[in-house]
Amino acid sequence: MNITDINGTVQLANGVQMPYFGLGVFKTKEGQEVIDSVTYALDAGYRHIDTAAIYGNEEGVGIAIEKNATARKDIFLTTKVWNADQGYDSTLKAFDTSLAKLKTDYLDLYLIHWPVKGKYKETWRALEKLYADGRVKAIGVSNFLQHHLEDLFQSANVIPMVDQLEFHPYLVQQPLLDFCRQNNVQYEAWSPLMQGKAFDVPLLKELAAKYNVSVAQLVLRWDLQKEVVTIPKSIKQDRVISNAQLFNFEISKEDVQKIDALDRGERVGPDPDNFDF
């Protein structure tokens, strides 16, 4: 990954350019809150917005994009099919619903949100159709561990281009990161700041002071140096702006390794092998 600026991209397996930095809107309220958050991001130069059907805020995301001066073609827009909608026909229907809410006629990336046992292969078949029909530029998965990916690979005609996973200093999952890299699956981080827990980690505070940056900026820069696409969430304009100020410093290899060493396999979200929703 060649890290340049907020407009920098990584090339997916099919040649699509995906911005390596963006805005996530998990738990951002539908209506003015999400409209403002997306607007702050686009106005600050972000070109990658990530939502999901289950977040309940696709309509607000769509309104913000429609009203913004940034052209739709310059925005990389992601949403995800929810578990209850998985299956072939129901996924195609869910995709249409998401497009209508987002006020767009195509997506840049569509993801299977969770690996629902017995359903995700049929869901993937629907994503392959949407991709073949040109309705989405790239397709991928979210929360798929190595064994889920290996299982999907057996029947897939198209290998997932992205796997969006919980990723932060307490959950590095280096073997999974390596597996994705070997198979040309772009790793993407959700909850990069550990839902705020990162701000209390002594080493991260120490290194942030060393580089004269915030803990958030340190961790997000570490994501990029690990070649992981990252989509931090914020509803505050100053935080949206500061989160993107990652391009005037570089973490040394030694310090990257120190952050890596914080890994303890600790999740702040559900375990992809044990979820019941």
Automatic annotation (TrEMBL):
GO molecular function: oxidoreductase activity, acting on the CH-OH group of donors, NAD or NADP as acceptor
Site feature Lowers pKa of active site Tyr, where: 80
CDD domains: AKR_AKR5G1-3 (cd19157)
InterPro entries, A to Z: AKR, AKR5G, Aldo/ket_reductase_CS, NAD(P)_OxRdtase_dom_sf, NADP_OxRdtase_dom
Superkingdom, taxonomy of origin: Bacteria
Keywords, alphabetical: NADP, Oxidoreductase
Protein's UniProt keywords contain Ligase: no
Domain called NADP-dependent oxidoreductase: residue spans: 28-263
Binding site for substrate: 113
Record flagged with keyword Lipid biosynthesis: no
Active site, per annotation: 55
Family: Belongs to the aldo/keto reductase family.
Protein known as: Aldo/keto reductase
Species: Chitinophaga arvensicola
